[in-house]
Write a structure and sequence with these properties.
With 197 residues, the protein is an alpha+beta fold. It is built from nine helices and eight strands. It has two domains: 142 residues, Jelly Rolls (Sandwich), CATH 2.60.120; 46 residues, no CATH class. A hairpin with a 5-residue loop joins β4 and β5. This is Transcriptional regulator, Crp/Fnr family.
């Protein structure tokens, strides 16, 4: 299978898991996307700028994070192969982001602009439904994450993360996992040893 056809199949599998499209509708959606590559530790969206793109991850690892005025960072979301990724609130509202979107490894994507998506969903109810269902799934995930942050111990947060993404330990550097959970990186190895995996 060629690179392009395997990327197309991966995108189709991800789309079908959200909302199945007819062949014509999927082809119209797929036609929006163009290949894009980024180096390791490249910031694709800076805080203060407006997100212009929706990315579909073909290869690599990325994170969305918040940085305060003292340079402290809070990792909010990881993305990797088979995920859509962007600073969603900035893209949908077309307003400046409060967050950064950064590659943690060399990454390859398919990407499209917000304007292209908006133009297509205005004329295609199935694409609009795909976006609505995708947003609903993202919103549900956000609510689950808020419950974790406010109610769970570090161990419980770690267990939930492993339950959602069992392979995460193999692809994300431990310092970023520690930051995501909200503990000091020096305590992360103790956490791994204390949690039954």
């Amino acid at each position: 299978m060629s690179g392009e056809s395997s990327h197309k199949l991966l995108l189709k599998q991800t789309v079908d898991a959200v909302h199945s499209l007819s062949e014509d509708d999927f082809e119209a959606f797929y036609a929006l996307f163009k290949p894009f590559s980024a180096k390791r530790k490249e910031i694709l969206t800076f805080a203060g700028t407006t997100e212009r793109y929706l990315y579909f991850v073909i290869e690599g690892l990325q994170r969305m994070y918040y940085a305060d005025e003292n340079g402290r960072e809070a990792t909010l979301v990881f993305s990797y192969t088979g995920n859509f990724a962007c600073i969603l609130d900035s893209m949908l509202s077309q307003s400046p982001s409060k967050y950064y979107f950064e590659t943690l490894s060399q990454s390859r994507f398919l990407r499209t602009t917000y304007q292209q998506i908006e133009d297509l969903f205005r004329t295609n109810p199935n694409i609009e439904m795909l976006l609505q269902k995708g947003l609903l799934g993202g919103f549900s995930g956000l609510l689950e994450r808020l419950v974790e942050l406010q109610s769970f111990t570090s161990e419980d947060k770690f267990r939930q993360l492993l339950k959602r993404s069992p392979h995460i330990l193999q692809i994300v550097p431990h310092k970023y996992l520690a930051n995501y959970i909200g503990i000091d990186a020096s305590n992360f190895s103790k956490l791994i040893n204390s949690v039954q995996i």
